[in-house]
Amino acid sequence: MSTCSKSFTLTVDAPSVCPDWDAIAWDPPNIFTFGGGATASASFVGNSITINTAVADQATEEASVTNLGSLDYNGPGCNGNFHYETTIVETNGQSGVQFQLTNVTDALIIFNTTAFVSGVFDIPFVIPDTLGATKTYQWQVSGGCGAQTPPAGASSMDVVATVTNVP
To answer: How far apart, in whole angstroms, are the C-alpha atoms of residue 28 and residue 48?
Structure first.
């Protein structure tokens, strides 16, 4: 019995045509505050999201941000990564943020992630080949702090997020 071998190199690159996440069309954010010590701000630009909320008394005040963004895509299957970092400071562990990416054309949830703690999170995901049809992808974002059951006290949540294509 004889054997043979051949050396080779395999390189995997992201397809040259993948969703252009910088082209996400965001609605104006819905920013809600209740109570004199509540503040909220948000920025949704292309593939980048920033949310900041704070309350002086989480038992009687609320600050939240919600938003929708959409992107049409027609092309090959692609791998993506949703990277986000949260800083949550509070006394009762109920402030948080939720992100969901959905192929609304086919009613297919690509991913849904929620964080109620400070941390760094990477959510890998796959966009299936569209097989020549344009698909609409929708981002849903919601987050905030306050309006929780006692104990009272200050609360804040800061989030920075980006979405990218990966090989």
So the answer is: 14
Q: Is residue 2 part of a domain?
A: no
* CATH number (domain holding residue 151): 2.60.120
Answer whether residue 16 is part of any domain: no
Single pTM value for the model? 0.85
What stretches of the chain adopt beta strand conformation (E)? 25-26, 30-34, 39-45, 48-55, 62-73, 78-89, 96-103, 108-115, 119-127, 135-146, 155-166
Q: Which domain holds residue 66?
A: 21-166
Across 22-26, average pLDDT: 97
Residue at 69 is within a domain: yes
- Biggest alpha carbon–alpha carbon distance for the chain: 83
109-152 per-position pLDDT tens digit: 999 999 988 999 999 999 999 999 999 999 999 999 876 666 67
In a domain, 12, yes or no: no
